[in-house]
């Protein structure tokens, strides 16, 4: 047994958990429109249960239909009709030996009025959430009591459904967290004014549940133990010292575990960290709690790999390891670790695409969360078992980036015989460029996973082999998948664009040539531009970022923007928003200042263009002449993100008839 600590049974209150792996609550938007757990949700949960986790905490589970709505397709225990489907889920999960808790949740101010009867959102005080920016109503004492009763009723329904316990969602700036924090609680009744009074909300909920469900019914709590608001300039907020004190008070109340977390919406990246954060980035805060409480401590900690989970247990940092995105990306994470097949795990690369889709789509009821590396996540009923009908037929795949390799993997699973052409010396396509900025190594995991899966089926990538219509045709392929990716745009209309001092981001990141100690003008502040700026800064260059739009990083997903700007703040970068590139000269560039309506000259040794990419697809039309089942996928079809590349590769292979 490679991970003895991870797979040792553990106790939570009176419950025995078969191992130390707890699937953390994850809002996936996969509940039915009436918030019951239907076939899609059950399939999602069961895959993770069969995949070996010891305990599952259901997603943020609604207790209040009127002012407590976080998303349309959200699990709920707000009404009696939710009990029976929840009971079916509990029964099925118990058959897999999984301990199952609901996560009782009220969003308070961290939601939207349009989800809550177009009324102002409720909170402990009237300070609006800086992210949601909704008119916020300070709950009256009676309203607080009403919500306490709803939490209790939610616990009773969870118990009736056969759940093993409930986890109070006291983290991430939601309502319980709002009451606990001096930042969001300025009340003067019995629910605010001092530490003890701020604690009364969670205390009365807990005592209410204990009274209604019996003291034996396990109650755990997920807590933000530090709001991490100092970088936002907030003076008074819930600090780690407060957080530890709250944990101790929860233990005294008879709670059976503390699930340590951190952050609120306003300290965004602390909620679900981006790729640049290392495994273990929360250890300091977890340790502070573990040292001061006797009940079991569960914690997520950017854990992506079993060795790290084992290390946390070995060091006594936690009693149970929380896995969030790791089991979205690979539902079989625990099983593979148990069987010593950790090199087969589809590791979460922490790209935060799931969170992005949660915010952009799921909350608004526009479909479940999406995972960049696992197109089946939250779509298990749409994509059940692979149809093995390939019968050994050859499929030519051109390009070995994420789209091509994912297509090959799925085709191989289906019994086709993929032949993968790669003109470069290494598989990976644009991932071999995307992994170059600082702290982006995790992105390589996509390729490592695909290559491992293919190798297990005896399939290798034909590197240094350029595909031509002739050599593809020679295979007499049943289908052809064009996954030739994209290349940087170098707009011909700009004077001087082909000068020796002009590089694309691809050339820059690949070190062709290596640039250090130079003055660099980078044009374009999209996500790639900002990452390239950091790459250049880290090599000792003096960097200016020019952007035609009126703000730097406009349109970049907020987590990536905050992360990139945080990293860049360590360097002396000059930003020029509203500046359009008009000409490149031998010693710099001429930019049009769109606000002042005048041209400015920016001296630079190099001008790096980050102006987007265009598809590379020279083979599709040719191949269609001899193979009507020819499809372009990923960037070759249309430039997109890693998620669309993987998904299109997956879908093309899944749909091939
Ligand atoms: C899509 C998504 C939904 C989430 N929903 C919840 C939730 O319902 N309740 C909760 O406590 N945390 C939620 N989280 C936070 C995760 O449980 C977890 O704390 C976070 O992703 C960091 O852990 P990880 O690196 O293991 O994923 C969510 C995170 C993501 C990415
Ligand atoms: S979308 Fe990205 S961060 Fe989210 S689970 Fe998938 S790989 Fe991980």
TrEMBL record:
Q: Which UniProt keywords apply?
A: Flavoprotein, FMN, Iron, Iron-sulfur, Metal-binding, Oxidoreductase
Q: Is the Metal-binding keyword given for this protein? A: yes
Pfam families the record matches: Oxidored_FMN (PF00724), Pyr_redox_2 (PF07992)
What are the required cofactors?
A: [4Fe-4S] cluster; FMN
Q: Does the keyword Iron apply?
A: yes
Q: Name one GO molecular function term.
A: oxidoreductase activity
* Stretches assigned to the FAD/NAD(P)-binding domain: 394-620
- Domain called NADH:flavin oxidoreductase/NADH oxidase N-terminal: residue spans: 5-344
Q: Which family does it belong to?
A: In the N-terminal section; belongs to the NADH:flavin oxidoreductase/NADH oxidase family.
This protein is called what? Answer: NADH:flavin oxidoreductase
């Amino acid at each position: 047994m490679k991970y003895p600590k991870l797979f040792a049974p553990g106790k939570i209150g009176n419950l025995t958990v078969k191992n130390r792996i707890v699937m953390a609550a994850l809002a996936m938007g996969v509940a039915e429109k009436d918030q019951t757990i239907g076939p899609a949700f059950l399939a999602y949960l069961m895959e993770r249960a069969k995949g070996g986790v010891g305990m599952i905490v259901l997603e943020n589970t609604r207790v209040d239909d009127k002012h407590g709505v976080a998303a349309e397709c959200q699990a709920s225990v707000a009404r009696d009709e939710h009990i029976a489907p929840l009971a079916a889920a509990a029964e099925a999960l118990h058959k897999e030996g999984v301990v199952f808790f609901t996560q009782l949740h009220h969003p308070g101010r961290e939601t939207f009025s349009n989800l809550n009867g177009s009324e102002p959102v409720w909170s402990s005080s009237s300070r609006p959430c800086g992210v949601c920016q909704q008119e916020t109503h300070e709950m009256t004492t009676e309203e607080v009591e009403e919500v306490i009763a709803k939490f209790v009723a939610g616990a009773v329904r969870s118990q009736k459904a056969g759940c093993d316990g409930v986890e109070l969602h006291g983290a991430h700036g939601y309502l319980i967290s709002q009451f606990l924090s001096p930042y969001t609680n300025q009340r003067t009744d019995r629910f605010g004014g001092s530490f003890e009074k701020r604690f009364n909300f969670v205390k009365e909920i807990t005592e209410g549940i204990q009274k209604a469900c019996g003291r034996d019914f396990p109650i755990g709590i997920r807590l933000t133990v530090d709001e991490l608001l100092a970088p936002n300039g907030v003076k008074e907020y819930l600090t780690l010292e407060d957080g530890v004190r709250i944990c101790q008070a929860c233990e005294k109340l008879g709670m059976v575990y503390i699930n340590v977390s951190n952050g609120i919406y306003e300290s965004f990246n602390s909620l679900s960290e981006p790729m640049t954060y290392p495994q273990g980035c929360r250890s300091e805060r977890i340790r502070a709690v573990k040292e001061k409480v006797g009940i079991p401590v569960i914690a997520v900690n950017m854990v992506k790999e079993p060795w790290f989970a084992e290390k946390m247990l070995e060091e006594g940092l936690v009693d149970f390891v929380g896995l969030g995105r790791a089991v979205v990306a690979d539902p079989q994470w625990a099983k593979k670790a148990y069987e010593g097949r950790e090199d087969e795990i589809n590791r979460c690369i922490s790209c935060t695409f799931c969170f992005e889709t949660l915010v952009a789509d799921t909350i608004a009821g526009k479909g479940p969360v999406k995972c960049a590396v696992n197109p089946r996540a939250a779509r298990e009923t749409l994509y059940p078992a692979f149809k093995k009908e390939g019968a050994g037929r050859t499929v030519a795949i051109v390009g070995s980036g994420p789209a091509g390799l994912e297509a090959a993997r799925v085709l191989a699973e289906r019994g086709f015989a993929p032949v993968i052409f790669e003109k470069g010396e290494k598989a990976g396509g644009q991932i071999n460029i995307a992994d170059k900025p600082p702290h982006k190594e995790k992105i390589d995991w996509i390729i490592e996973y695909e290559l491992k899966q293919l190798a297990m089926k005896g399939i290798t990538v034909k590197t240094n082999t350029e595909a031509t219509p002739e050599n593809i045709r020679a295979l007499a392929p049943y289908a052809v998948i064009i996954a030739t990716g994209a290349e940087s745009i170098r707009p011909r209309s700009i004077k001087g664009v082909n000068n020796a001092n002009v590089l694309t981001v691809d050339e820059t990141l690949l070190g062709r040539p290596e640039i250090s100690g130079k003055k660099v003008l980078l044009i374009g502040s999209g996500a790639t531009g900002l990452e390239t700026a950091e790459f250049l800064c880290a090599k000792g260059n003096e960097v200016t970022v020019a952007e035609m739009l009126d703000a730097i990083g406009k349109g970049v997903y907020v987590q990536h923007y905050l992360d990139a700007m945080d990293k860049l703040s360590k360097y002396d970068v000059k930003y020029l928003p509203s500046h359009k590139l008009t000409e490149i000269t031998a010693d710099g560039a001429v930019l049009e200042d769109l606000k002042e309506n005048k041209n400015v000259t920016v001296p630079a040794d190099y001008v790096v263009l980050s102006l987007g990419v265009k598809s590379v697809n020279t083979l599709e039309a040719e191949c269609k002449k001899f193979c009507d089942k020819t499809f372009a996928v990923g960037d070759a079809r249309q430039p997109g993100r890693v998620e669309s590349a993987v998904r299109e590769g997956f879908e093309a292979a899944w749909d091939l008839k």
